[in-house]
Amino acid sequence: MELYAWTKNKFYFLWTYNDYSYNFIKTGMLGLSFFAASTMAYPAYFTREMVDIWPKERGGHCTWNNNYRQCFKFMVENMDMMYYNFLSGYWRWVRRYGAGYFIGLWMADNLGMFSNCNEAHASIDVQFPIASESI
């Protein structure tokens, strides 16, 4: 969500000053932010699968002692050789969860949750004309 908010703030001129549709630009920005977030988050999801779902060793012993941190540490240590293995099943996961995430982000943007005007009413930056002191 932070990447989407950042790209929305940086590329506002595409729909404000140029003749591009806001929905067209929003689709590209949402696609970019979803791709970046999902490729970073999917290995953590895969860690959960490795610890909870994968078959155990003989005697029901888990390789990582049922510890997500040890499993993720194993993944980071072996990332140079096995990163593509840690992304196995990614496209199946995108088909299953991606549409809902994309629709949720689209609706959040339509409801104004990514606008620059959502500061708190009593924020220190907010000044009201009646309460402001004049010099």
Structure characterization notes:
With 135 residues, the chain is mainly alpha-helical. The protein has one domain (2-110). 61% of the residues lie in helices and 0% in strands. The protein contains 6 helices and no strands. α3 packs across α4 and α3 (22-52) crosses α6 (90-110).
Quick gist of this model?
This protein is mostly helical. It has 6 helices and no strands.
Key features?
single chain; 135 residues; mainly alpha; 0% strand
* Oligomer classification: single chain
What is the number of E strands? 0
Mean pLDDT: 81
The Rg value, from CA coordinates, equals 22 Å
Write the layout of secondary structure elements.
Elements (H helix, E strand, L loop, with lengths): L1 H9 L2 H4 L5 H31 L15 H10 L1 H8 L3 H21 L25
Helix pairs in contact: 1-3, 3-4, 3-6, 4-5
